[in-house]
Amino acid sequence: MRIVTTLPSATETVAALGLEPVGVSHECDYPPTVSSLPSVTRSRIDASASSAEIDSQVLETADDGVYDVDVETLEALEPELIVTQGMCDVCAVDEAVIADAVEQLSIEPEVLTTDPHSVADVLDDLERIGRAAGREQRAREVRTRLEARIDRVRKRTADIAFEERPRVAIFDWTEPAMIAGHWTAELVEWAGGEYDLATVGERSRPREWTEILEYDPELVIVAPCGFGLDQTAANRTDLTDRAGWDDLTAVREGRVWAMDGHHYLNRPGPRLVETLEALAPIVQPALFDDRAAGPITDADAFDDFDTQLPSLESVAVPFETLSERPTSVDRSTAEP
Fold this sequence. Notes:
The chain is an alpha/beta fold.
């Protein structure tokens, strides 16, 4: 089947089904082979800008939208299925933009829209895409393996007492400060933490800094949407220069981490399970000390992907080490 995907998580899901799209979005970079495929989208935002500058650019594009679709390329690819999303019109091309583009085509592809807000939603979308692509059995098998990996983490943390669960705050943007929502609360709970700043399914949104100070997290993870570790390093003062940052329990106790928010946490696809496996040794290091070298993972779940599994250090690093990283950002050469 000729499939076009318009966001990275859809591309990763299609790849997990053993298929390769004929076209992808400008942001799609995993598995690595998709980087050479035709792109059907482009952004009006400078993705290498600072978090504050990107926020300003997004506001300036409110009337015209953040993304464009290359209708000519889309037509030439002759897609039978287009996978898009309706969750966020800033994070990726959304269903409305795709609908406008499809109206201009001489063909009538099926359009499948994902709108996940929980891990269950992500796994349901895996099966929906599998059915649409004629890979229903493969989708069920991949889901079973992913759920087994989730269960391995949850079994270790199931009996942790409330008082032994650290208060966790995960930032998915730094200027303005935004707390990660959607599936983040359940990932943190499964990893052995407490996440009272958002409930499962709640959207990410800006927060008053006083709310963060009052919550006083015991563990902070900074994973801005679309930012790899180098770009997070370049924007770290968005948080460290704020009044009261040094007084947070997490900062005083040295429990602040940076996570690759471009490839993990914010991509609602199969690798969301790797996010959980990376979170677990950060949230409960004593329980997962045998996993310090890398995520708790199963290569068979992605046997059509590059099976070189990431080390924990490539996914997340102590925040204090960000000062040692380069501050220039080139998204075109970023490694997934």
